[in-house]
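wait is this the right file?? whatever heres the structure
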């Protein structure tokens, strides 16, 4: 059983040692294993990794974006959050409206070629300015399709109605805590072809026992070095918020992984992280005057006593 941050590090070591070398849609290549699980006791501290600095502000603003049902990166850019830029940028540079320098395979090329990296940076800055200042441009190229927020808050039915899964699961936890149906799904087969990135974290389920709320996430595709540390903290935060609204204590976060992989160009970064010792986990403080999770803003969260090792940079595979 893999538990806590050490469990995460053990998984990294296991994948490097036992992972199968596989190709992938990004043409980067991965070391991959299938079917893994980690458990985090949320009463031991907030599970933000300490063996490298993980930006909590970006995690929290992304989660608020999901919870609002938003699918346009403008909100993220307004909060200085750039974690979804590459997927929206890709839509622009592959469109008929783009007339700038060739941006094919920009993620890998920007890592290998400093001259191209500067050209890419300039084009990305143009793109971000347009998203923030041009409503028509933002509506067309900032929109990522019916990704997480849309599925969580406005799942479209065959009767042309919508289901607010997040509100319904909170109601279910409050009024029928022993139910085995506290489930939210982001995987909508009809919408998947039109998403900038089909959901990697596809389904989550809540569980109430002894006055504590736990959450299990099934993640079909898990970028162990860059993505999974965000996913762990994001779903832990969501569990904290729903427990707060439902007057429950926090329990566990259980993270179940399908294709758990380390990109080949992240291997050295992972080895650097594995050479570090874990430190005490931070504490999450939530401003408690707000009752509904839909009322929270970024300023309502405070992370106390976070003392991580320095961040480790790595390229994003797009």
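ok assuming it is, sequence goes like this
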């Amino acid at each position: 059983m893999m538990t806590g941050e050490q469990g995460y590090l053990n998984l990294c070591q296991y994948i490097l040692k036992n992972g199968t070398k596989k190709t992938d849609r990004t043409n980067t290549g991965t070391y991959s294993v299938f079917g893994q699980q980690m458990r985090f006791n949320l009463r031991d501290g907030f599970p933000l990794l300490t063996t490298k600095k993980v930006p909590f502000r970006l995690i929290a603003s992304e989660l608020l974006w999901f919870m609002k049902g938003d699918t346009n990166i403008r909100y993220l850019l307004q909060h200085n959050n750039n974690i979804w830029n590459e997927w929206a940028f890709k839509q622009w540079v592959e469109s008929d409206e783009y007339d700038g320098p060739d941006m094919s395979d920009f993620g890998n090329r920007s890592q290998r070629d400093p001259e191209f990296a500067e050209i890419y940076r300039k084009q990305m800055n143009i793109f971000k300015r347009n998203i923030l200042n041009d409503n028509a441009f933002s509506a067309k190229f900032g929109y990522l399709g019916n990704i997480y927020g849309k599925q969580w808050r406005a799942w479209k039915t065959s009767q042309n109605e919508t289901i607010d899964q997040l509100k319904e699961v909170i109601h279910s936890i409050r009024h029928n805590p022993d139910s085995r149906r506290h489930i939210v799904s982001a995987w909508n087969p009809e919408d998947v072809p039109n998403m900038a990135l089909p959901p990697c974290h596809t389904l989550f389920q809540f569980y109430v026992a002894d006055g504590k709320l736990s959450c299990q996430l099934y993640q079909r595709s898990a970028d162990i070095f860059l993505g999974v540390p965000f996913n762990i903290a994001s779903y832990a935060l969501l569990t904290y918020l729903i427990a707060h609204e439902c007057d429950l204590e926090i329990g566990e976060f259980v993270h179940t992984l399908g294709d758990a992989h380390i990109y080949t160009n992240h291997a050295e970064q992972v080895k650097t992280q594995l050479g570090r010792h874990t430190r005490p986990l931070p504490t999450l403080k939530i401003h408690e005057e707000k009752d509904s999770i839909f009322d929270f803003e970024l300023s309502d969260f405070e992370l106390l006593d976070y003392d991580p090792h320095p961040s480790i940079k790595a390229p994003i595979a797009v």
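The CA atoms of residues 93 and 318 lie 13 Å apart. so i think its the right one actually
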